[in-house]
Amino acid sequence: MSQSSGTERAINPIEIQGYLKGLDYPANKDAVIARARQSHAPESILDILMRLPNKEYSRPTDISSALGKLK
Q1: Distance (Å, rounded) from C-alpha 60 to C-alpha 57?
Q2: Which H, E and C letters describe 12-34, residue by residue?
Q3: Spatial separation of the C-alpha atoms in residues 71 and 69, rounded to whole Å
């Protein structure tokens, strides 16, 4: 497995969902980020969530799908 250069971190939707436990759906991007902050998500996770499209997410899989489309 090759290492990524710099500080870029691989997106792990399962890890991210752990920080979103208890989030009430539907939820917009701001609510997703706020829940992650309340769960003490590290800055690297918050940085990834800040890259999500600004829309409403109906369920956890919607967030995972959006994360999978991030470059």
Answers
A1: 8
A2: CHHHHHHHCCCCCCCEEHHHHHH
A3: 6
- Percent helix, strand, coil in the chain, to 5, is 45, 5, 50
Reference 46, options 29, 59, 71; nearest CA is 29
What tokens appear for 28 in the block?
Answer: 């917009």
What pTM was estimated for this model as a whole?
0.84
Do the Cβ atoms of 30 and 3 come closer than 8 Å?
no
Tokens of 8: 């870029």
Q: In this predicted model, what pLDDT tens digit does every residue of 24-44 receive, in sequence order?
A: 999 999 999 999 999 999 999
The residue whose two tokens read 């939707």 is 13
First to last CA, the chain: 19
